[in-house]
Design goal:
single chain, alpha/beta, Alpha/beta knot, 8-stranded mixed sheet, 9 helices, 19% strand
Length: 248
């Protein structure tokens, strides 16, 4: 991890409208069915039912669990859970942090795609509608198909996107990270010293960050010695940031 951070001795009052928070839902368990699974009987049955080729269907353990378990997919313990992304995206987009204009969300998928989510997007509450939207996104590269895209797939890597941000600091959250005494104080110090704060939270059920993600992280932080859900970590982080940036 690069780039050392120097903290001021005292926390200052932080109400800074020029600050920006970027949320990266990293190694997200969101992908279409990989080619190596297309011939699996479970996949073929589901494909026939949906009247879609497997390459246009989102991999979901709810329907494809046995195919994933019996496969030779790399990092298969991290795959087939698009519901994690759905819940996290709802939480992020509904937040006051987003409504106040501080937040921008990127979804970095397990296959390395980067999905750009516009600030005014309100994802479908219904999970099946969300899956339909994601299938359209992976097929067309953008949603909606015409006009100004609300959600789109970038042609840049997550490293290129994050490295293009000036005066940035990138914080990842994992139980393998170092413990801190106060999340709010920690984030306050970063916001005092940097214009762009990047928050990296894993959006997968088990495992650890990929090397691609670890390469962009400056500091890896643990909120607990136990594994925590994506939404729990996201709730903690958003709540702390709202206190720092929005609360009077």
């Amino acid at each position: 991890m690069s780039q050392k951070m120097l903290f001021p001795d005292r926390l200052s009052v932080v109400i800074m409208i020029d600050r920006r928070v970027y949320l990266v839902l990293a190694d997200a368990s969101l992908e279409t069915i990989p080619p190596s699974l297309w011939s699996d009987p479970i996949i073929r049955k589901h494909s026939k039912k949906k009247k879609k080729h497997p390459k246009y269907i989102i991999l979901d353990s709810l329907y494809h669990g046995s195919a994933i378990v019996n496969s030779k997919l790399e990092d298969k313990e991290k795959r087939g859970r698009p519901d994690i992304v759905h819940q996290a995206l709802l939480l992020a987009q509904d937040s006051e942090l987003n409504n106040a204009g501080f937040l921008k969300v990127y979804i970095h998928t397990i296959r390395g795609n980067v999905i750009i989510v516009k600030q005014n997007v309100r994802p479908p509450r219904n999970y099946l509608r969300f899956i339909g939207l994601m299938e359209q996104l992976f097929e067309l590269g953008r949603v909606p198909p015409r006009g100004d895209p609300l959600i789109s797939i970038s042609d840049k890597s997550i490293g290129d996107i994050i490295n293009s941000l000036e005066n940035r600091f990138v914080v990842g959250f994992s139980r393998r990270g170092r413990r801190i005494s106060s999340l709010k104080d920690f984030l306050s110090r970063i916001i005092n010293g940097y214009k762009n704060l990047v928050i990296v939270i894993g959006a997968f059920p088990h495992g650890f960050f990929s090397e691609e993600i670890l390469a962009i992280i400056n500091d890896l932080i643990a909120l607990s010695d136990r594994p925590l859900t994506t939404n729990y970590v996201l709730c903690r982080v958003i709540s702390a940031l709202e206190e720092i940036l929005i609360s009077p």
